[in-house]
Design goal:
By secondary structure, the chain is an alpha+beta fold. It has 8 helices and 8 strands, in the order ααααββααββββααββ. Strands 2-1-3-4 form a 4-stranded antiparallel β-sheet. The protein has a 4-stranded antiparallel β-sheet with strand order 6-5-7-8. α1 (2-22) packs parallel to α3 and α2 packs antiparallel against α3 (56-79). The longest helix has 24 residues, at 56-79. The protein starts with a helix and ends in a 5-residue tail after the last strand.
Length: 225
Amino acid sequence: MTVILIRTVIFYIILTLIMRLMGKRQIGEIQISEFVAAVMLSELAALPITDRDIPLFHGVVSLVTLGTLEVITAFACRKIPRLRKALYGEPIILVAGGKIVNKGLDKARITLDEVLAVIRTEGYKSLDDIYYIILEQTGKISVIPRASAAPVTPDDTNLKVKETGPDMPVMIEGVEIESFMNRTGKTREDIETILNQHNLKKEDCLILAFDETGRFKITKKDEAE
C-alpha cells in the first residue's frame, strides 16, 4: 500500500510537470496529437502505479519520452505549415453566404440538427441570421452573423471609443503576476506605492489590475462576498 501511495505521488508530480511543459489548453481546444498524448500519458502512468513488477524508472522514461515527442511535434508544426495541415487539418465551412454547405457537413460528419443547435446556442433565431459557420481545427464552431443580425458597435454609430484593453491583474490575493506586470510596465515598487496610498497591505488586496491607459482598480478582500 505504501509503495502504491509513493508511486502515485511521484507520477502525479511528473505528470503535472509534463502537462505544464506541453502548455495550457481547454479540453475542447486541444489538437489530435495533444489528445492522443493525454490519453497515452494517463495509461502509461496508471500501469507503473498499480503494477509493482514494472520498475518505476521505466514508467518515468515513458512519460518523459511521450511528453518530449509532443513538445517537438508542436514546435515542428509551428515551423512547418504542411506538417501542421497534415496533423491538425484545416477549417471546414459548414454555412457560406447563409446557405448550407453539404460537402462541409459530410466532411465534418456534422448533421444539420447540430448546426441549428449551435445557431441557437449563440443566441440567434434561425439560419436566416447567419452568414458563415466554420468548424475550426480545434473542434470549436465559429458563427459569423449577417450584418443585419450582428450586435451594434461604436463603429456603426460613428462613436470614437478609446482603446483601454482588458484589465490586467498585476496582483491577485497578494501575489504578483509577472506576465501582467511586464505587460503593463509596472514594478513591485509601483505596486507598493499604490498600496501605501490606499493604506493597504499585500495580504489585504484581493485584486489590483491595470488597463492599457494606466488606470487601476483595487478590490479589497473584505469587499468580496
